[in-house]
Amino acid sequence: MNLKPFFTAVLTTATLLSCNTVKSTSNPVAKVPNPIQLFNGKDIKDWTVKIRSHEVGENYQNTFRVEDGLLKVRYDGYENFDQQYGHLGYNKPYGYYVLRLEYRFVGDQAKGGEGWAWRNSGAMLHSQSPNTMLKNQDFPISIEAQLLGGDNTPTSIRTTSNLCTPGTNVVYRNELFTPHCVNSNSKTYHGDQWVTADFIVLGDSVIRHVLEGETVLEYYKPQIGGGNVSNYDKTQKKDGELLKSGFIYLQSESHPIDFRKVELYDLEVYKNNPGQLKTVTEAIINTKRH
């Protein structure tokens, strides 16, 4: 399904009829799904931890924790980070959805973290299951929506909601994109401020990164391929296979980060109705943010 016109055409005016219903001239009634709170504010029982050099399910040194109603990534128990990249995977896969994160970087980077990992984290989309990752695998085969923070220097530029591709490729600007990362056109978010990031994921057709209601990056046909992932089970990497769905992870790359919201709007019911999909997605993106 070619959904490029979905993002390049002039936006259709949508009228909110109630808290969960939208209407447009082409789609009389389309219900906006209630958001699923992937992070419930209390615990991570619905998630699975996978940290490099550790078995699936081992939350080494309590890296991922819930305190003060926040999902936190911390390293106070580490002597040295030593490339122990961590990922916290939600236990249910999704294919068509809007993922909304509210995050902030805090504190100092863990000892031994690489320079590129300073104020660096991510949300992994269309990922392999944590139960298929090997003990020494560094990253899940996935599409990474990279999160970066600024250094408080007014003239510095460090965009966020970028794209990285561990074990994957995408079509970007009408060409197969095989480098590891590409920057968005976002502004730089400095300090410990909260940032709201939306990710529109529509199966194997298109993924769109949105900040403050504006698209900052868009690409197509997510698929398995390329490098930038190591020590994986070769049966899990079928190069050229389009990614229609997968698991969602939050990342640990050596810098402390907080998440106060991780919610998902499941759009599966609209995947075969482009008009309603467009209307509902626009309504979600335009909902009030903190």
Description:
The model is unreliable at 1-19 (pLDDT under 50). The protein has one domain (39-286): Sandwich (Jelly Rolls), CATH 2.60.120.560. The longest helix is centred in the C-terminal third of the chain and has 12 residues, at 274-285. The chain contains two helices and 20 strands. The strands form three sheets. Strands 4, 6, 7, 9, 13, 14, 16, 17, 18 and 20 form a ten-stranded antiparallel β-sheet that branches. A hairpin with a 2-residue loop joins strand 6 (64-67) and strand 7. The chain is mostly beta strands and 290 residues long. This is 3-keto-alpha-glucoside-1,2-lyase/3-keto-2-hydroxy-glucal hydratase domain-containing protein.
Give me the secondary-structure topology.
Layout: H1 4-8, E1 15-18, E2 21-23, E3 30-31, E4 36-37, E5 47-51, E6 64-67, E7 70-73, E8 86-90, E9 96-105, E10 120-127, E11 143-148, E12 162-164, E13 168-172, E14 175-177, E15 181-182, E16 195-202, E17 206-211, E18 214-224, E19 247-252, E20 257-266, H2 274-285
Antiparallel strand pairs: 1-2, 2-3, 4-20, 5-8, 6-7, 7-20, 8-19, 9-16, 9-20, 10-11, 10-19, 11-12, 12-15, 13-14, 13-18, 16-17, 17-18
Low-pLDDT windows of residues? 1-19
The share of residues in extended strands comes to: 35-45%
Radius of gyration: 18 Å
- Mean pLDDT across every amino acid position: 91
Count of individual helical segments: 2
Molecular shape: globular
Major sheet details:
10 strands, antiparallel
Q: What top-tier CATH class fits best?
A: Mainly Beta
Fraction of residues in helices? under 10%
- What is the second-level CATH architecture? Sandwich
How many β-strands, per DSSP?
Answer: 20
The ordered H/E elements are HEEEEEEEEEEEEEEEEEEEEH
Report the CATH topology name: Jelly Rolls
Gap between N and C termini: 34 Å
Number of domains: 1
Output the structural class: mainly beta
Which superfamily, in CATH terms, is the homologous superfamily? Exo-inulinase, domain 1
